[in-house]
Amino acid sequence: MKHYRQTGIRRIISVWIAVCLFTFLITACGQSSTNSTLGVQQSAQAGSQEAVSPFEEIASYEGADREQFLLEKAKQEGEINLYTSMSAPDIEHIAKAFTDKYGIKVNIWRSGSVEVRARVVTEAGAGKLNIDMVEAVGPDIEAIHQEGLLQKITSPYHKDLMKEAVPPHQEWVAARINLIVQAYNTNKIKKDDLPKTYEELLDPKWKGQLGIESTDDEWLAPLAMEWGEEKGIQYFKDLVKTNGLTVINGHSLLTQMVGTGEVPIGLTVYSYKVDQMKREGQPIDWFALDPAIALPSGIGITKNAPHPYAAALFYDYMLTEAQPIMLERDMTPTSTSLDTGLQNVPIKFLDSANLLAELDKWMNLYEEIIVRQSTK
């Protein structure tokens, strides 16, 4: 089997490095009162966490005039500060549309989901968390919730989303998902010859034709739990032993290699990326074995947010008017009123809390079963 990757524990190392970096910046550098990235005066926010939060009123208000109720005070606040893992062009486009409508500025700091999580936790630990909102992948924003850093909110727009998008604690909500599907090179494989089930991937005819991303324990874990842990783990061992896997570092690279035909079938690619390449005329398409795993990306409001009304207004916006914007930009929104083309896809949401509780176990299993075997 071919092997294109970094080590499987790179996310743990990334978190550790990010925490150390942010701790150093906060403690050694004192974190400048003028944050050039956010463009806000930290000194103006000092002590804001000590103020009585109006959030109970915001979170529970469901009147017909909710938008106007929030907007009146949001205009007084004038801005929100957001840490996000959404791609820069996408979040900047959404933020501009929000600002154009309401006149509220969105100050954005953007990085990978792991880095967002690390910065939030580190700044909170140092007593210097002065942001309003966080947007990150499910396990990372769930970890921020478990640190006690997010505020419960009961939005009237939760009911318009996929039911799995709203965790029971309601401290974050999935405004979008990344759907993990299977992709194939249409020049190499006929649609009628594609496997119909995961079991059919064990057919020896697929030997040497399957590729997988190097850190997709978020995909393996829910499948194994769906089938029964022992049976699921044995399935992946059998798959590797029978047909081998080409392990690729990065979903984009894996998808590109399917498009070139170097990897005829990619087992863990994002549907939106395939759609983009297909529109460009590349010989690629996707199909979904049952179940297809959905990775939520959640948005939440921090406790003691310095701009709570503006934050709540943006939160509602992300669940309403931003939803079709996401769809237009090849993201998969969680609104049930939009035609995402996934109505007939057997979707299973990743349970972020369950994965987080046993993350080390699943990362180690993925490393042991999938990655290490790819070098033999």
Automatic annotation (TrEMBL):
Gene3D superfamilies listed in its UniProt record: Periplasmic binding protein-like II
Pfam families linked to this entry: SBP_bac_8
Coiled-coil intervals: none
PROSITE patterns associated with the record: PROKAR_LIPOPROTEIN
InterPro entries: SBP (IPR006059)
Keywords from the UniProt entry: Signal
Annotated protein name in UniProt: ABC transporter substrate-binding protein
Taxonomic source organism: Paenibacillus abyssi
